[in-house]
């Protein structure tokens, strides 16, 4: 039964980028951007991937859509393995999976009017005639809080928040099942950010969407998500429901990450776990647990053996030797 | 005692042959010695321009229209009205600045040693050996583990956090009286941000340096500053101690900003959001309050008369008409007790 509920299942996904060097451009090594991660996304939920820059969260999102062809693993979308599908038929499937990017300034073609931008996906996927597409564009633009009069404007005439609204309209116009939001609100100002988040929540309910929300902003993730996966150096460190993760973070990395968010309540003076050092070079990751070099709780075993990803309690997975029997 | 930095009625205009409009208007800021002062605002609020004006680094098209920027160190200088030669003596020695993007602020063609010691070479008269030693000590102080190695490195060999540490070392090496930090941690990850803020706090206490922190992140302000000015559309709308701003915000914009962040923690609620968009300078109203179009409390008066700065409490200023009108003011205080 469980299989039916899952819109998306990612199994042992790997994406290794070769490092080429020398005169002959031989492969000298690999950057393991995503290294063996698995998770499932249920229908109608918001699943978030968090982590610092370079942890592989965006690569995961792109690998799911095959914008980066995965090295290994399976991506099951409603039961079909996306990686087995030929390029042409995959293109047809892609309308069910849309991606919204961080920077609304570079993701919209400056030479197209909003109307053209919105009609383009419908016409490419041959989902509507030109007339129908025009009608749909007009409907969609009102759904995202802009007006029909703005259909003939060009992207540069809009502010950042409005452009992000257009990107959202463009992604949703083909009626997708799954939307991957890659840092979709990170470039926006605080007062605009909350407008867009409200819009995303409203549209999710209206269109029965499933979101994969990729972000480094832990406050936003807390507000939006049902479940959260924490990534570090291409690996999943912890995965739990939002409440469990924020109230009872198990992995030392998650604990440090949560304590590093600057508090906005003057009364709340929290114990800080300040991590030493930087994220290691992903082309030369440490042996054993990827976090062991910065971990305040590291012991000998962490350097020798990679911890397994275990379900510590219901719906709460963690990869850390502290929790292995 | 005179404050270390005293900005009075600073206005900055955008001026070309065709256009002339006001961007920053009537900014008043006083920073005492050793004080940690924050300016918070959204993009386009004029917070960075204010800091660039202090450093005399405004782009050609932007001109200081009015006001003074008084710096009181050994002598008193007006930075709004100073020769280039004089200013060169101030930069790096009395006031220094760190920027958001450490990769663009460091020159990729020179080693860290060259860039770090350049400031000393210009302002002080040490021998080469002494300078090198001061440089290494400074790198140690900013928490760099292998200072001798890093001195020989080029910027691209360092990580983002390390580069920002080098920037801080460069900024503090001449022991300036004031450090301006323009979004110093925005480009960094949260765990690195925590390290850098910690370091800045520690070093400013050690060297008795005042900090002017420019950021869009209220969390960073609470973490580092004592006083804060909230800027919106080129004006300071509220100014007080950090505690007062966070606990009893007076201006509708500050309130809105705080509510939208605070409701983030609350999943069941719809997020509070300020309607509308941040105006661009050509949309600023000639008359009236610049926030009026987005303000839930806006009255007729707000659209045709610019609000004055009111003292709402001791040491707490807010630029809003609400504070005059008795009825409204009471309503707000009852609202405060309810929450």
UniProtKB/TrEMBL annotation, chain A:
It comes from the Bacteria. CDD domains: ABC_NikE_OppD_transporters (cd03257). SUPFAM superfamilies: P-loop containing nucleoside triphosphate hydrolases. Residues 8-258 form the ABC transporter domain. Keywords: ATP-binding, Nucleotide-binding, Transport. One of its GO terms (biological process) is transmembrane transport. GO terms for molecular function: ATP binding; ATP hydrolysis activity. Belongs to the ABC transporter superfamily. NCBIfam families: oligo_HPY, PRK11308.1. This is Oligopeptide transport system ATP-binding protein.
TrEMBL record, chain B:
GO terms for biological process: peptide transport. Its main location: membrane. The keyword Endoplasmic reticulum does not apply. GO terms for molecular function: ATP binding; ATP hydrolysis activity. CDD domains: ABC_NikE_OppD_transporters. It is found in: Cell membrane. It is a peripheral membrane protein. The keyword Cell membrane applies. Signal peptide: none annotated. Keywords: ATP-binding, Cell membrane, Membrane, Nucleotide-binding, Transport. Belongs to the ABC transporter superfamily. This is Peptide/nickel transport system ATP-binding protein. It comes from Piscibacillus halophilus. The lineage of its organism: Bacteria, Bacillati, Bacillota, Bacilli, Bacillales.
